[in-house]
Amino acid sequence: MESSWGSFNAERGWYVCVQQPEEAEAEELSPLLSNELHRQRSPGVSFGLSVFNLMNAIMGSGILGLAYVMANTGVFGFSFLLLTVALLASYSVHLLLSMCIQTAYLGP
């Protein structure tokens, strides 16, 4: 049985891919990743948006953990822990702002 170039007889259920030699050479020479994204100016993400995204992820996981803490400590223990953590967070923000004032760094 004689077959022309590019045709192939395969068993049923098998997938066969046949390419012309020119197509295979062109595919081998093309880069896997193109530099087109680097050439085009993308708008990018600002620092503030990155910080917001990070805070959103941290607070989201913290809020999911609140129900577990309340179930294990009870209402009064949970209220005490929540108040303690809120006071510590407030004090840490106070320290950060006071250091910004002392170093006279007001931002970019």
From TrEMBL:
Domain of life: Eukaryota
Spans traversing the lipid bilayer: 47-69, 75-97
Record flagged with keyword Amino-acid biosynthesis: no
InterPro entries xrefs: AA_transpt_TM (IPR013057)
GO molecular function: L-glutamine transmembrane transporter activity
Keywords (A to Z) from UniProt: Amino-acid transport, Cell membrane, Disulfide bond, Membrane, Transmembrane, Transmembrane helix, Transport
Membrane topology of this protein: Multi-pass membrane protein
CC annotations in GO: plasma membrane
Keyword Metal-binding attributed: no
Entry's localization field: Cell membrane
Occurrences of domain Amino acid transporter transmembrane (ranges): 46-99
Family: Belongs to the amino acid/polyamine transporter 2 family.
Record-given protein name: Solute carrier family 38 member 6
Organism of origin: Nomascus leucogenys
